[in-house]
Amino acid sequence: MQESLIQVKNFHLHYGTNHVLKNINIDFPDKKVTAVIGPSGCGKSTLLKCLNRLVENVDDTSIMGQVLVAGDDIYNPKADITEIRRKMGLLMQRPSPLPMSIYNNVAFGPRLFGENKKVTIDAIVEKNLTEVGLWDEVKDRLKSPASKLSIGQQQRLCLARGLAVEPEIILADEPTSALDPVSTQRIEQKFLELKNDYTIILVTHILRQARRMADYVVFIYYGEIIEHGTAEEFFENPKQEMTRNYLKGLIP
Q1: By C-alpha distance, which of 147, 160, 145, 150 is closest to 91?
Q2: What tens digit of pLDDT does each residue of 73-100 get?
């Protein structure tokens, strides 16, 4: 049996004396959309940040266990953090375009990793803006500030920026929570297309969204994985009483 691209093994995270993630063990299926669900403050976003080592920015953090990407432990002291983050594009709750032009937002990553040929950069920008359905909307104003775009367009631009460095994994932390329904639909549809080429891990507090999009579901409650499985199994035949109560809306 082929190993998953991302495996989390016996993973614990503490912020000071606060035990935030408790003995997390999960293999994320490749080239699928995995929805991580659970109440607010239960550790969903923290788990996502652990997958590309963003949690270390928080003071007094201690970590035990492993996060393996293609078999390599990203918490090995010799791990290349820049390369880890290149492999994992991160889309946040609110769009975070860089304070520069639309073009330079997408070109930023490839330039950072050593690509300097203008013809190549031009092709990368067009390819990735097309990939997220933004090219036709912005091709005549590529030199305009990214901040002039609508919120929905900014989020698609951030996705294009992440895809431009050719990641293997897309991490999405409630990426539609600040968007209008039309922009939400565009992002969701794009993820369903992208899963043919990328492993996607989506944190969402919206059960309807998880039902629409997920191939696999992980339910976290106060730092512990209560249940995980295929979306069909999870929603149609949950095994744990706590899962059933959450799906019925009995857990806030």
Answers
A1: 160
A2: 999 999 998 888 888 888 988 899 999 9
